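Before relying on records like the one below, remember that each one covers exactly one chain. Contacts with other chains, cofactors or solvent are not represented anywhere in the record.
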Amino acid sequence: MRKILLLILFISFSSFCQEKKIKIFNPKKASRLSAILPGLGQVYNKQYWKVPVIYGGYAVIGHYIKFNNQMYHDFKNALTLEVDNDELTLNPFPNFSRNSLERNMDFWRRNRDMLIIFTGVYYLLNIVDAHIFAHLNGFNTDNDLSLNIKPSLDKINNSNLIGISLYFNF
């Protein structure tokens, strides 16, 4: 009875030890999908968790573009009010001189423009991420890392050299 129970137990465990099949994705298709709509290539690659990260990044960048743009316009309007020679209009930043207003206006405009450029880079990184994952998805990641040490005998200039060879298996 014990032998039959062990045999049934062995058969049931061996059925779970099948090799995991890896789905191969098309890198060109993943890149095109991500270029059409950011995150679509990651959905194609079955990396659903990256979609909120991508759109969260766009939301953060968009927020800071809006903030920098608002500050740029505030300082631009303050500079306009400062140089209009009308005493009825008041500068909303009374502690800033004309030179300070110009520097702040340039600072906020430069930050806004850099964030707009960064948005394009972020878009390209989304495409590159989908493309690279599609390429590397079928890459063998098993734990078969080994080092073999074997004696070796080489002949150089009619001399026999005895040594040790190291073979790495990645």
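Residues 3-18 have pLDDT under 50 and may be disordered.
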